[in-house]
Amino acid sequence: MSKRGFLITVIALCSALGRVMAQEPASSVVAPAATYTAHYQASANGLKATARRILTQLDNGSYELVNELEATVLGQEIARLQQRSRFHYAADSIRTDSYSYRVSGITSDQRSIEFDWQAGTALSTEDSESWVLELRAGVFDPLSHQFALSQQLALEQTGRYQSEYEFTVIDGDEIESHRYQLIGEEVLDTPLGKLNTVKLERIRNPSSPRSTIIWLAPDWQFLVARIEQMNGSLQMQLVLEIADIGGAAVTALLGSD
């Protein structure tokens, strides 16, 4: 595979991490989550990359979620991707303030979204193009919705999750709706050991060559534990390697090797 082909696959992998899951905010949410740092092993058709996700709380009380991916070939960095979302709590729901997406390396790509909830609009920009979109309750950016999903799942008792989750997210000049179905609960093998997880799959058109499956860890704030995405012959994976939440290390189930 060429360097450019590899870059395309790792960008798709990071996009899967940033966009794969979301949930409309509930009428009430749990207490703000503890901040965390998580490191992942990433691969695309056998080629390797590294990724990390960091949640921090800012001085003004809002949150910042950063998703990063770095791809190298023979020790040389060929691509770096960074997604950044800032959001806050408002009337017991989660609202995004801003979002940015930047790719650098042998190619480049820039996107951003500025949310103006008072005016009821969002300015979405991709390179030199921009669009003004009308906001409504429950609209997220391609990254903040994962935080909202984790908050929603934390409200539900283990074993009593909803059968489907639906969300809306701004993507370029559109506000899209996506649905995911609950597959079940699974003890998942990861590089740090076995973890309890909730497994979900995106509902797509039966003729679509794409599939997306995500595993979230309920013992650890529903942190992303694994993502698998297929698109024809392209197979992408991302799996949790090490993480800490609120300063405490994420650990495997007792008795896990």
Q: Helix-strand pattern, N to C?
A: HEEEEEEEEEHEEEEEEE
Total number of domains: 1
CATH T-level topology: YmcC-like fold
- Return the CATH architecture: Beta Barrel
Determine the fraction of residues in helical runs and give it as a percent range.
10-25%
SS-based class? mainly beta
Determine the mean pLDDT: 84
Characterize the overall form.
globular
CATH class: Mainly Beta
Task: Give the N-to-C terminal Cα separation.
Answer: 35 Å
Question: How many beta-strand segments?
Answer: 16
Task: Summarize the model shown.
The protein is mainly β and 257 residues long.
Walkthrough of the structure:
This protein is mainly beta and 257 residues long. It is built from 2 helices and 16 strands. It has a single domain, classed as YmcC-like fold. It has a 16-stranded mixed β-sheet that branches. The longest helix is centred in the first third of the chain and has 17 residues, at 3-19. It is globular. Residues 16-28 have low confidence and may be disordered.
